[in-house]
Amino acid sequence: xxxxxxxxxxxxxxxxxxxxxxxxxxxxxxxxxxxxxxxxxxxxxxxxxxxxxxxxxxxxxxxxxxxxxxxxxxxxxxxxxxxxxxxxxxxxxxxxxxxxxxxxxxxxxxxxxxxxxxxxxxxxxxxxxxxxxxxxxxxxxxxxxxxxxxxxxxxxxxxxxxxxxxxxxxxxxxxxxxxxxxxxxxxxxxxxxxxxxxxxxxxxxxxxxxxxxxxxxxxxxxxxxxxxxxxxxxxxxxxxxxxxxxxxxxxxxxxxxxxxxxxxxxxxxxxxxxxxxxxxxxxxxxxxxxxxxxxxxxxxxxxxxxxxxxxxxxxxxxxxxxxxxxxxxxxxxxxxxxxxxxxxxxxxxxxxxxxxxxxxxxxxxxxxxxxxxxxxxxxxxxxxxxxxxxxxxxxxxxxxxxxxxxxxxxxxxxxxxxxxxxxxxxxxxxxxxxxxxxxxxxxxxxxxxxxxxxxxxxxxxxxxxxxxxxxxxxxxxxxxxxxxxxxxxxxxxxxxxxxxxxxxxxxxxxxxxxxxxxxxxxxxxxxxxxxxxxxxxxxxxxxxxxxxxxxxxxxxxxxxxxxxxxxxxxxxxxxxxxxxxxxxxxxxxxxxxxxxxxxxxxxxxxxxxxxx
Length: 612
Known about the structure:
612 residues; Ubiquitin-like (UB roll); five-stranded mixed β-sheet; disordered C terminus
């Protein structure tokens, strides 16, 4: 079937212009039709020529006029694509699909890398730090604690990361020369600065708690104790840590506070608060839900005081001044606690010596029933009678006198003498008392005994849940040994400590059995420990945990939530998949372009070719 078609030249100037009418078969291909128009109109034939219909749609060279929907009377426009100024067409000829594919791939890969880095940063723990100095009567110890800032509790899940023993004796020993303690404190503070990251200095609080040694000085001469504490505060103030409230951050603790904080330490480390310390996550199960039940008691003995703290049971009503409260991990705890000043191991020794000397009329030669026979110790009267726990109670006639305490190794007399240091006959105005008219409910639950309790029991090899009878037997055996036998059996123990282990054992037996009322049934509830789960037990950890609730909440801002992370991951993976799709399209486009160029080259090779 024949068609009459009009071709309008849209070629640049210099080429034949106007309209050309052609009558051809509808089965003629577009390419042959263009060649016929060129030959009949005097137009130079080239492969860049194209025909477009009235809708400006380019007709494919390989299609027939019928397939291109060309009808009789149609008007077609002849163009030269090499001279087409259409920017989009030029870009498409350069195969822009490769650029689009590369751009999508770049966006996808960079996006995945960035959001994974940000999400990894979100998952990294952001730690907070705290520094506590335990200023005891015999020495000062610095501890650095760490906890995850983003933990779900207002109370910190703290754990110890460093400790430093301050050189020299306790700060109470510097009453004659307070500035002398400054350089010793600075050494440990600088050591702590090397543990805490630089960017955490300003948010890391530092505390110092002075215990019984300073309580004694404060009771005798408050101005001296204040001078010592001011030197301490000035020294800590020079550190890089946060110390904005010197009076409260470096202070003398009460005995009740010391007992409470030790109780917190023990129960936290053993998982009794229903929370698990971060380094113990695989070791514990959750604690009891009712605040107090299931907790353990704490027995602490320092150099100048000893404390007992425990939960007495939900139905026990305690008199005022014998209980302490703490809010920990969203629960309120009320416990019994009492501190016995001058009943720490060093001060009770001093009181014992003073009692012996006085009871033997201040004789130069003093019989010491608690010391091994054959041992002799010389003490100056000032060391015995000028300390706060003995000054004013015992009055020696000669202030320059020395006394020689000669051991007799009489354990029964030792026990009776030590009992004189307690007042078990004082009337008890409460439902139950320990000694000296001090209220105490019945001991309840398990107990952990540490500090000097542990040192004594460890020396006697009685820390492995020994019974009361076994402890008594071990103590009696040691107290009957001569000084020669003691030195031969314990050659590695310093000789200045050896004479006092019989005294220490009898004193602790008297305190625990006659004072606190532990018996053969409840003795097995006492566990003598130095460390628990690798953590040094004392009041400082409990102090840090309790204080953390009052610290400003510094919640970390997350870059993205898990939902946002998942959505962003999906988005950028889609970009990568889209880039693959564009790359496939670019490959197909390139293949089609090559086929077109080959076809056009074939047409050029034979001029106008035959017209069908």
